[in-house]
Amino acid sequence: MRDQITEWFKSLQNNICQSLENADGSGRFHEDLWDREAGGGGRTRVLTNGDIIEKGGVNFSAVEGETPDNILKALNLPKADFYATGVSIVMHPKSPMMPIIHMNVRYFEMSNGSWWFGGGIDLTPHYVDKGDAIYFHQTLKDACDKHDPEYYPNFKKWADDYFYIKHRKETRGIGGIFFDRLTETSHHSKEQRFEFVKEIGNTFAPVYTTLMHKNSALPYSENEVSWQKLRRGRYVEFNLVLDKGTKFGLDTDGRTESILMSLPPQANWEYNYQTVPNDPEQLTLDLLKKGVDWV
Amino acid sequence: MRDQITEWFKSLQNNICQSLENADGSGRFHEDLWDREAGGGGRTRVLTNGDIIEKGGVNFSAVEGETPDNILKALNLPKADFYATGVSIVMHPKSPMMPIIHMNVRYFEMSNGSWWFGGGIDLTPHYVDKGDAIYFHQTLKDACDKHDPEYYPNFKKWADDYFYIKHRKETRGIGGIFFDRLTETSHHSKEQRFEFVKEIGNTFAPVYTTLMHKNSALPYSENEVSWQKLRRGRYVEFNLVLDKGTKFGLDTDGRTESILMSLPPQANWEYNYQTVPNDPEQLTLDLLKKGVDWV
After folding, report:
1. ipTM of the complex
2. CB A166 to CB B267 under 8 A?
3. Which of B167, B264, B268 sits opposite A256 (nearest CB)?
4. Could you tell me the pTM of the whole model?
């Protein structure tokens, strides 16, 4: 089944790249194939300076080998080899009126026979548009509900907790869903778990291209661009300080350029920046908290 | 003695801010006083948009309270209260021909009676100038040699190992010195350790203002500015992924804006950027490795 999952992730990468190129207009993905010295490799695809997307990556990888000790420790596992495959996406749009998006779907298998799926998708608007937020969460809820009515409420809460920048006391964006260690239970066979992961993977392109069509032509000024760069700074903080996928990649001697394609083309830090009450920037900050019920 | 050390760190902050303002010309430090809820506080001073310094901070803090569990674990210590005081500095100059500099001197005391000094100073040129690198290391060696001939060789190696960006396989800059857990030994009394830390603290202003006078008026073009922004991206990577001081600050619920004043005003990431052989950028990269003997 591992081969079947791996092949499906490859085809997901192909389909998503095609959809994003179509929606962007001029942007084209550049592909780099790479091998990991300790086993496996990947297909990194990066698009820069498109009409809508300033910098974005859609990465496929399938890596294997001895599990590093720090990861065994963190997961409380005995010494074993691992196999990990998945697709990771981050899109940084040119326009501050377009949200950043991230998706990851992954499958993990240990030589002792244990396996699990994980993944997530979350949206980081520079300016929160409530209609977009409701659309995004409703689409995820609909996808989840086809598989288990418990999925959306549980995984939405998990995303609120995961995509949280502790040291800023704010969420990265408006959240989405996050899940990990999904394995076989009396309610869910491996095939059913895989079907759910496919559903989420297939949700990405229609959701983001809809937002591209809707928002990428909205007007903005230098003021919105300055705010975008500060928000990108927070995105960098989350990814480098807190993101477990980034940490796993760097710890397992992954390809650094593929892992850090998630970073924005440019980010700014301004000491002790303060928003103006009731300005759109402050209204966005007011919504970057856990527990907002969007649907 | 703890009060004496604390007061000396405060006066060091005053003296360094004064020297930097004089050398910069127009830049002035803005001060924020802050309290830490769990005990202690600090004096953050940030200068932005000076003639030479684009963004720089000189922070004093003295914090105390219960030691967080993760830190006790990392240091292999029993449950105890801590007191930590020090000065932390990072300067991001406007010109890519000027190096970034960092210094930290700190004193740590536990309620069980143990104590130690730590610190470091390192230089991160966007373009390595060999004369400047020799001057920087020679000055540090002279300062160290007044106290112990073993200090410079040991602490220089420690800096090479500490200021190393593992996932990039490059050092952050040309290094300097780094030291930690300096406590009482048969060779070194507490007073002698403190004298050494003072010596290093007092080295900062003359060294960096010399580099400001020498380099800040050198000509440069857009090309050098682009490279500077990529190098600032690496600085962000080091500070957020690897720096223990940043981690300690965020883990002990320190003041985020004071801790992250170390981040540059702007940083760029370009996917898989490649330098041109023999260009100044590549010649700089060739020198960003451990074990270069500068003196």
Report:
1. 0.95
2. no
3. B167
4. 0.96
